[in-house]
Amino acid sequence: MGVTKKMITPGNGTDKPKSGDTITMEYTGNLYSAEAAEHKGKQFDSSVGRGDFQTKIGVGQVIKGWDEGVLSTDGGMTLGEKSTLTITGFVSYLTDLWSHGKETDLTCSDYAYGDRGFPGLIPKNATLIFDVQLKGINGKKM
Questions:
Q1: Percentage with pLDDT > 70 across the chain
Q2: Mind telling me the catalytic residues?
């Protein structure tokens, strides 16, 4: 799966961050829970009430799911957009599984925190749900 994006409120439709841009985000992160409303389990972090989060995007300063979710998933985000990003912690790709006597080709990709997790907050290989709003790009605010 990697990362999926559900738009809550559209942005301005024109201003999109590019790899290397400094973005300003407001976010709340929850652990995925199949039983919880909107699959939002325990909250593990939030910038709400603490102050917006600034980072360079697309250069590996944040988890891969944020880089892809902001820059490219479903066309990427535009200034002011509010979306929910669902980010898997561990993705496996299997090819030729037991077919034609070939061995399985297994590759893994971490979009969240993978097998290291974040001790005390995020379990290993956890799927995460982030409510995010893109509030600024290189100093330009919504």
A1: 85
A2: 27, 44-45, 63, 113, 130
